[in-house]
Specification:
heterodimer, A: Pyruvate-ferredoxin Oxidoreductase, domain 3, B: 3 domains, seven-stranded mixed β-sheet, five-stranded mixed β-sheet, globular
C-alpha cells in the first residue's frame, strides 16, 4: 500500500464498545509514525448504546476530517449490526474487518475486542509495531496494558 | 517545534493556558464541554457555573479586573448568556475576554442548529472561525490579543467537527506568556451602563469595530490561495477543508475572522475569478453580507443550510446539484441505559397517562420507545414554565395529568425560576414537578454542578440541597424518593400528588449508573479526615 495517498479508516460500533478508544489508538499510531492525521466523530450520545462511528484519515496531507462516502479503505465493525448501515462508506475494493474474524473465546477480556480488531487492521497498514504499542499504552490506563497488548497480538495473528 | 495530536477543544484549552488565561468559566454542553476540563487538566483555573449567563458574568468580572478570561458554552448556551453579551460589547474589557460558542450544525446533540455568527453581528463583537486544531490554538491566542487591543470581547465560533476532530498541531516551544497582574481601575463611564454612559459607549463600540475591520483587511487571519481562475471559493471553518478536498484546483479565500468582514479583500478576490462560490456551514451569513455589499457571488443552495457539510455535499454544491439527497442508512438510536434510574420514572408516567413537559438531558430519551413519555421539549428549564402554561389553559381532564420532569443539572441551570413561577402563579388544580436527580450532568459526560457539592475538579464545595430550596420556597408537598427501589410505590406517589390538587415536588434521587462508581470514589476522598493523636 502506498502511503502517499490518504488512508481512510472507519471504525463503527455501538456506544460503550470502545469505538472512540480504538480510533484514538489508531490515530495516535499513525501520528507517532510521522503522518499527518485527522480523526473525527460525534460525541454526546456515544455512551447511550446508539450507533457510533469514527473516521481516521492519515497520509502526507489530509484536508477534511470526514471520510467521503465510498472512499473508506477499511471498515472496522466492532458490532455485527453496524456493518450494514456503514457499508456504503467503503470503497468497492475496500476491506471489511469485523468481529467475526476474532476468536472471542481467546480474549482474556471480552471488552478488548476493539483492540483485537486493530491488530487485524494493523496487518494491512504500514505502521511500525512500536507505534501501535506506544499508542495502546498511551491511550489506556496501565492496568489494561497487558490485556490489550495481548488482544492486539491475537488480532494480528488471527 | 512541538508536534501534537489534539482535538479542537484541547487546542483551545492549551492556547488559553499558554496565553495566560487566569480563569475559565462555562456550563457543560456538547460539543464544548471538554475545553474547560482540558484547561483544568493542564493546570488552568476552571469552574462550572450554574448556567452560561452566570459563567459569562463571572468571566466579564475577571476581564474588568484586567485578567484574561475564557468562557465556554454550546451554541444554545449563548442564548442564555445573550443578555450580558450585548452589553459587555458596550462596556468593553481590560483583560482579554474570549467567548467560545460551539455550534452544532446537524444537531448531533442539540435541539436546534442556530448559527451564532449572527450573535457576533447582532452584539457587535469580532468573530473568529478556526478550521482545525492548529487554528483553534492560533485563533484562541489571536482572539485574546484582538480583545485587548480594542478592549472588546471576541467570539470564537467552533463547530462540532472542529471541537471533536483530532488534528496535528505544529507549535513553537511553549513560552508561557507573562501577563500583568489583575488590578481594578475605576472607569465609571465605561463600566456602568446607565443610558448617559451607554450612548457614547455604543458609538465607541462602532468605532472599535471599524478599526477591527480595517485590521482584518490588512492583516487578519485570512488566506488567499491562488488557483484556477475558473472557480473561486470563499470559505470559513471546517467547510474550507471539505471544499479544498472537493475542488483542489480552485482559487480560495479562506476567511478566519468572519466578523467584521474584510469586504475589500473579498471584492478583489471575487472579481478576479470567473465564478465565485461562498461555502459556509449553517446560515448564509457570509454570503448575505457579501451580496449586501454588492459583490457578485453564489451562495450554497438553500437545502445545504440544513445539517453538516462534508466533501460529498461540497461536490454537489459546486455542481449546483439540488436533487434530493439519499437518506443515510439508519443506525441504532441511543436509549436510556439498561438499569438507568430514569426508566422507572418514565414507566410510571406512561402508566399514569401523564402529559409530560420535558427538558434537556439524558432523560430526553424518555421520548423514545418503549416509554414515549415526553410531550414537549423546548430549551433548558422550559419543562416547568411550559407545563404550567398547559395547566393554565387545558380542560380539567387533561390539565390534571400535566407534570414537568427536569434533571438535576438542568434544574440548577434554569429550573429554579420556573419553580418560583409555580409558587407565584399556581395552577388551580395544583402541579407536579419531578426533579430527576441522578447526581451528575450525565448527558454531557458526568460533569459536576452545584447540586453535587463538588467542583469541576471533583473537590468538595458548597452544595445546593434541592429539597431545602423547594421547601424554603413554600412548596407544600415535597418528597424525596429512589424510584428504582419500588417502582410501584413511586407510581403511587405520583398518582397521589396528581390527585392532591396541590403543589408537589418529587425529587427522584438515584445516582446515574455510569457515574455511580466515580461518585463513590469522589465521596470517599471527601470524607472528613479524623485526627489521631
Amino acid at each position: 500500500m502506498s502511503t502517499t495517498r490518504t488512508i481512510n479508516i472507519v471504525i463503527a460500533g455501538l456506544g460503550g464498545q470502545g469505538v472512540l478508544k480504538a480510533s484514538d489508538i489508531t490515530a495516535d499510531a499513525a501520528f507517532r509514525a510521522g503522518f499527518n492525521v485527522k480523526k473525527s466523530e460525534l460525541h454526546g450520545m456515544s455512551q447511550r448504546g446508539g450507533s457510533v462511528t469514527s473516521d481516521i484519515r492519515f497520509g502526507e496531507s489530509v484536508l477534511s476530517p470526514m471520510i467521503p462516502e465510498g472512499e473508506a479503505d477499511f471498515l472496522v465493525a466492532i458490532s455485527p449490526e453496524q456493518v450494514e448501515p456503514n457499508h456504503h462508506l467503503l470503497r468497492p475494493e475496500g476491506t471489511l474487518i469485523h468481529a467475526g474474524l476474532i476468536d472471542a473465546g481467546a480474549l482474556k477480556n471480552k471488552k478488548s475486542v476493539n483492540v483485537a480488531l486493530l491488530g487485524k487492521l494493523s496487518r494491512s497498514l504500514q505502521l511500525p509495531d512500536e507505534a501501535w504499542m506506544e499508542a495502546i499504552r498511551a491511550n489506556l490506563p496501565e492496568k489494561l496494558h497487558e490485556v490489550n497488548l495481548n488482544a492486539f497480538v491475537l488480532g494480528r495473528t488471527a | 517545534m512541538r508536534r501534537l495530536l489534539l482535538s479542537g477543544n484541547e487546542a483551545v484549552a492549551l492556547a488559553a493556558l499558554e496565553s495566560g488565561v487566569r480563569l475559565g468559566t462555562g456550563y457543560p454542553g456538547t460539543p464544548s464541554t471538554e475545553i474547560l476540563e482540558a484547561f483544568s487538566g493542564l493546570g488552568g483555573r476552571a469552574q462550572w457555573s450554574p448556567n452560561e449567563k452566570v459563567a459569562l458574568e463571572v468571566a466579564i468580572g475577571a476581564a474588568f479586573g484586567g485578567a484574561r478570561a475564557l468562557c465556554t458554552m454550546k451554541h444554545v448556551g449563548l442564548n442564555v448568556a445573550a443578555d450580558p453579551l450585548f452589553t459587555v460589547a458596550y462596556t468593553g474589557v481590560s483583560g482579554g475576554l474570549v467567548i467560545v460558542s460551539a455550534d452544532d450544525p446537524g444537531m448531533a446533540s442539540s435541539q436546534n442548529e442556530q448559527d451564532n455568527r449572527r450573535y457576533a453581528e447582532a452584539a457587535g463583537v469580532p468573530a473568529l472561525e478556526p478550521s482545525d486544531s492548529q487554528e483553534a490554538y492560533e485563533f484562541t491566542a489571536l482572539a485574546l490579543e484582538i480583545s485587548e487591543r480594542w478592549e472588546i470581547p471576541v467570539l470564537l465560533r467552533l463547530t462540532t467537527r472542529v471541537c471533536h476532530s483530532k488534528t496535528v498541531l505544529l507549535l513553537p516551544e511553549c513560552t508561557t506568556r507573562a501577563v500583568p497582574l489583575p488590578r481594578f481601575t475605576r472607569d465609571i463611564h465605561s463600566r456602568v451602563m446607565i443610558p448617559a454612559n451607554a450612548r457614547p459607549a455604543h458609538r465607541r463600540l462602532r468605532a472599535k469595530l471599524q478599526a477591527a475591520r480595517e485590521w482584518n483587511e490588512a492583516s487578519g487571519p485570512n488566506r488567499w490561495t491562488e488557483g484556477e481562475r475558473a472557480l473561486g471559493i470563499i470559505a470559513s471553518g471546517v467547510a474550507y477543508m471539505h471544499a479544498r478536498e472537493a475542488a483542489p484546483a480552485a482559487s480560495f479565500l479562506k476567511i478566519g475572522m468572519t466578523y467584521p468582514l474584510p469586504l475589500d479583500t473579498i471584492r478583489k478576490f471575487a472579481t478576479g475569478v470567473e465564478r465565485c462560490v461562498v461555502i459556509e456551514e449553517g446560515d448564509p451569513f457570509l454570503a448575505d453580507a457579501i451580496r449586501a455589499a454588492g459583490i457578485q457571488v453564489e451562495a450554497k443552495p438553500e437545502m445545504y443550510r440544513f445539517g453538516e457539510l462534508n466533501v460529498g455535499r461540497m461536490r454537489r454544491i459546486l455542481t449546483n446539484d439540488v436533487s434530493p439527497e439519499p437518506a443515510p442508512p439508519r443506525g441504532t438510536p441511543p436509549q436510556l441505559c439498561p438499569g438507568c434510574p430514569h426508566r422507572a420514572v418514565f414507566s410510571a408516567l406512561r402508566n399514569l397517562g401523564c402529559i409530560v413537559s420535558g427538558d434537556i438531558g439524558c432523560y430526553s430519551l424518555g421520548v423514545l420507545p418503549p416509554f414515549e413519555a415526553m410531550d414537549t421539549l423546548v430549551c433548558m428549564g422550559a419543562a416547568i414554565g411550559v407545563g404550567l402554561g398547559l395547566r393554565h389553559v387545558l380542560p380539567p381532564g387533561q390539565r390534571r395529568k400535566v407534570v414537568s420532569v427536569i434533571g438535576d443539572s438542568t434544574f440548577v441551570h434554569s429550573g429554579i425560576t420556573g419553580l418560583v413561577e409555580m409558587i407565584y402563579n399556581p395552577p388551580e388544580d395544583g402541579y407536579v414537578l419531578i426533579i430527576l436527580d441522578n447526581g451528575t450532568t450525565a448527558m454531557t459526560g458526568m460533569q459536576e454542578h452545584p447540586g453535587t457539592g463538588r467542583t469541576l475538579q471533583h473537590t468538595a464545595t458548597g452544595k445546593m440541597i434541592f429539597e431545602d430550596v423547594v421547601r424554603a420556597l413554600g412548596v407544600p408537598r415535597v418528597h424525596v424518593i429512589d424510584p428504582t427501589i419500588n417502582p410501584q410505590e413511586f407510581e403511587n406517589l405520583i398518582a397521589a400528588c396528581l390527585d392532591s390538587l396541590d403543589l408537589s415536588v418529587v425529587i427522584a434521587r438515584r445516582n446515574c449508573l455510569l457515574a455511580a462508581s466515580a461518585i463513590r470514589q469522589y465521596e470517599k476522598c471527601l470524607e472528613p479526615v479524623h485526627e489521631h493523636n
